[in-house]
Hints:
The complex is a heterodimer. By secondary structure, chain A is mainly alpha-helical. Chain A has helices at residues 29-53, 90-117, 120-125, 129-133, 135-143, 158-179, 183-188, 190-195, 199-227, 229-237, and strands spanning 23-25, 58-59, 73-74, 240-242. In chain A, 58% of the residues lie in helices and 4% in strands. In chain A, the strands form two sheets. In chain A, strands 1-4 form a two-stranded antiparallel ribbon. In chain A, strands 2-3 form a two-stranded antiparallel ribbon. The longest helix of chain A has 29 residues, at 199-227. By secondary structure, chain B is an alpha+beta fold. Chain B contains eight helices and ten strands. Chain B has helices at residues 2-23, 25-29, 31-36, 38-58, 87-95, 117-122, 149-156, 194-197; strands at 102-107, 113-116, 126-133, 139-148, 164-173, 186-193, 203-208, 211-212, 222-224, 237-243. Chain B has two domains: 2-31; 67-260, Alpha-Beta Complex (Sulfite Oxidase, Chain A, domain 2), CATH 3.90.420. Chains A and B meet through helix 1, helix 2, helix 7 and helix 9 of A and helix 1, helix 2, helix 3, helix 4 and strand 4 of B.
Amino acid sequence: xxxxxxxxxxxxxxxxxxxxxxxxxxxxxxxxxxxxxxxxxxxxxxxxxxxxxxxxxxxxxxxxxxxxxxxxxxxxxxxxxxxxxxxxxxxxxxxxxxxxxxxxxxxxxxxxxxxxxxxxxxxxxxxxxxxxxxxxxxxxxxxxxxxxxxxxxxxxxxxxxxxxxxxxxxxxxxxxxxxxxxxxxxxxxxxxxxxxxxxxxxxxxxxxxxxxxxxxxxxxxxxxxxxxxxxxxxxxxxxxxxxxxxxx
Amino acid sequence: xxxxxxxxxxxxxxxxxxxxxxxxxxxxxxxxxxxxxxxxxxxxxxxxxxxxxxxxxxxxxxxxxxxxxxxxxxxxxxxxxxxxxxxxxxxxxxxxxxxxxxxxxxxxxxxxxxxxxxxxxxxxxxxxxxxxxxxxxxxxxxxxxxxxxxxxxxxxxxxxxxxxxxxxxxxxxxxxxxxxxxxxxxxxxxxxxxxxxxxxxxxxxxxxxxxxxxxxxxxxxxxxxxxxxxxxxxxxxxxxxxxxxxxxxxxxxxxxxxxxxxxxxxxx
Lengths: 248, 268
C-alpha cells in the first residue's frame, strides 16, 4: 500500500501566485490503528507499572535481591497522580498491567506481521547507507529545529528511522524482560532469564527500557508539536499529510 | 515565519502536555472509577485466564523451577506477611519445639491422615535451592527440605472430582495498611491446583538452609510451590484439604490474598 512517498492525493496548483501545497497519503491504515492502540496501551502500562514498582521501589542486579541486599538503584515511590490506579494498590495495578500486556503483545504482533509482510519496516524504517551518512547533518538539523521540506519531508529522516526502530526493539525488550520476571516462564525458559542476567536484572532492565520509552515519547511529542501538530495529528488519524513547502 | 509559528506551537503544545500530565494518569482515563467498576474488573480478569492457560500450555511438560548452588543462597532471606503468629496456642507449640504439631490431611481423600513433624521427617524427602519471587518485586534464594506433597496426597488417595488442595495456616494476617489495597485481618490460607500439587518440587518443607524452619519463615511447616509467587507458599500449615471448589471457604477465592483482589494463579 502507501508509503510516505506514495500517491499524491490532489492539489495541483491552481493559477494562484502561491503554489498550493501538496497533500499525500502518509500513514497506512494499519499503522494508524496500531499506533493509537499502542499509545493508549503504553500510557496504561507505564501508569500501572509505576504503581507495581511502588510495592518495592528498589532495583537489583542478578537473580535475587531484597531489602538487605545492595541495590542497583534505590528510588522513592512515585507519586499517586502518576500511577494507575491513582492510589497504592498492587492487586488492581497488576490487573491493569497484565490485561494491557496482552493488548500490547497482540497489537504489536499485528503491526510487526503486517509491516514485515508489506515491507513497511524494510522500506520506511530501515536506514539506507545514504541515511546513515546523513546522521551528523540530521542531528544538526534537529538541533536547529530545521524540519525537512518538500520531497525530503515525504520520507522518514534517519533519526526518525533509528528512533522508531529503537522503540520497536525497546517494546520487544519490555515484553521479554516482563516475562522473565514470571516464575512460571523462568521454569519454562531459564536460559532466557540467565541471558538477561537474572530475575532481578530483568526487573531492572524492564524499568530502564520503560524509562527509555518515556524519553522517546517526550521527544516524539515535542517533535510533533515542532513539525506542526495539526498536520501531524491529522496524518496519523486520517492518513492525509500536507507536505511542507520549500518556502514555508 | 515557519520557525516562529512552530516555536509558539511548541510552547502551547508543551503547556497543554504538561497540563495533561499534571492532571494525572488516573484522572485522564477515569482509571480509578474504572477500577471500581465491577464490569470493567471482569474484563481485566479475563487476562488471568489467558495467562493461566498459556502457562499451563508452556509448562505442560512438568518443567522444573531452576535450582541453585549453595553459594547462591541469600545471606538474609526476607520474611514477609506474618512474622510470628503468636497467640497462646502457637506460643505453646514454639515452647514445645512443635512436638505436638499435627498436620491433618482430609477432604476428598480416601484415607485422611494426621501426621506429626517427626512423622514427616521419617518420610522420603527432597531438598532444593530455589528462588522465592515476591509479588512485590523482590527475590531471595533459599534451600528447602521437605516431603513432596504428591507423596502425601497419594498416601491419602485423592478421590475422583477433586481439583484443588487448600492449605490452612495457624496465623491471622493483619496486613500492613501502608502497602495499600485491602489489608484487612483474616485467617491465612492458600490453594493450588492438582497440576502444581503433584509437581515434584512442591513440598511441605520443614527445613530451611539445613535448619528447622524458624518462626518468621513458617515454623514448623510451610508450602513450597516453586513456579508461582511467594504469597502462594503458605506458612504455619496445619491442615490440608482436598476440594472440588472454594465455596464456603473464607472469601471463596482460594486464598487470603485472592480474597483481597490478587490473582489465584500466581505464575506471573
